[in-house]
Amino acid sequence: MTPVYAMAAAARRLxxxxxxxxxxxxxxxxxxxxxxxxxxxPYVQTPQNVVDRMLEVAKVGSGxxxxxxxxxxxxxxxxxxxxxxxxxxxxxxDRRLVQLSNRLAAxxxxxxxxxxxxxDIYKTDLTAASVVTIYLxxxxxxxxxxxxxxxxxxxxxxxxxxxxxxDWPPDEQMVLDAPDKPVGRDKKSKVFFWVVPGNAAGRWxxxxxxxxxxxxxxxxxxxxxxxxxxxxxxxxxxxxxxxARLTGEEINFVVHNRTAAVRYxxxxxxIRNAISGTVRVTGAAAQHQLGWEATRVELGVPAHxxxxxxxxxELQRQMQP
Length: 321
What we know:
Layout: H1 3-19, E1 23-24, E2 27-28, H2 48-57, E3 65-69, H3 75-84, E4 87-92, H4 95-107, E5 114-118, E6 131-134, H5 138-151, E7 157-161, E8 172-177, E9 188-195, E10 202-210, E11 213-224, E12 227-234, E13 237-247, E14 250-257, E15 262-271, E16 274-283, E17 287-299, H6 312-319
Parallel strand pairs: 3-4, 3-6, 4-5, 6-7
Antiparallel strand pairs: 1-2, 7-9, 8-9, 10-11, 10-17, 11-12, 12-13, 13-14, 14-15, 15-16, 16-17
Helix pairs in contact: 1-6, 2-3
């Protein structure tokens, strides 16, 4: 057993103590760690209706490249290829499941677009993905989270079955009936969805007509995952940004100058250290839309990038009763 798999096995054993079941991806593993045989373990399938919903939530289409971590019998990637026209691959540590998945892909007629590998999830190159699907233990999700945030392109969609990403809040979540689910009493499945955020943190500057003149506008933004807060200063005044949203590299926020009774609705796309978009200006006298071009004059660091990477010992302590 490799060190990485030994660590994952320890995490699975820990979850068994807490929940009475061991689940990693599509694998249910009974028994003590010393007796683990990854080739002989039965697996728990993601119900097909959950697979369908996960792909729908991620809006998977023919232009997408999907990577499935803990791919089991391959149904996620096979469905993405056959039903949505996507391409991609799945990884699992069980060689026989990988072989089965490749056979099923060939039988479904999508072997040219759906491939499966026996690989370590921590060492898998994810950079080609536009969508990542996962079914992992919660502590393994936390160990994978830094890699997802650091290596996936902003705008990449991530969908998880049953378990979240700790303090990375999902952009969307839901509970589904899962009558075919082979574990659990209530036959329910949770689905969590995220869009990998770009970096909006720092200080931005642009010019905007203000009181009949062109004025410098400064925006200072703080960021934690996709959550952004900030303040706009211009013409000697300062206003907090409202209704701020960061979705991948798409940024939206509102600035309301209540003294002048003017509302600014900003919408744009971050391209490295620039933002290109529009601002809709609404006031008592007039309403109009202008082009918006901002430049980052001071690069900020999102708070989530400074979080310490979870370690197995810490996760063990968290899971102890």
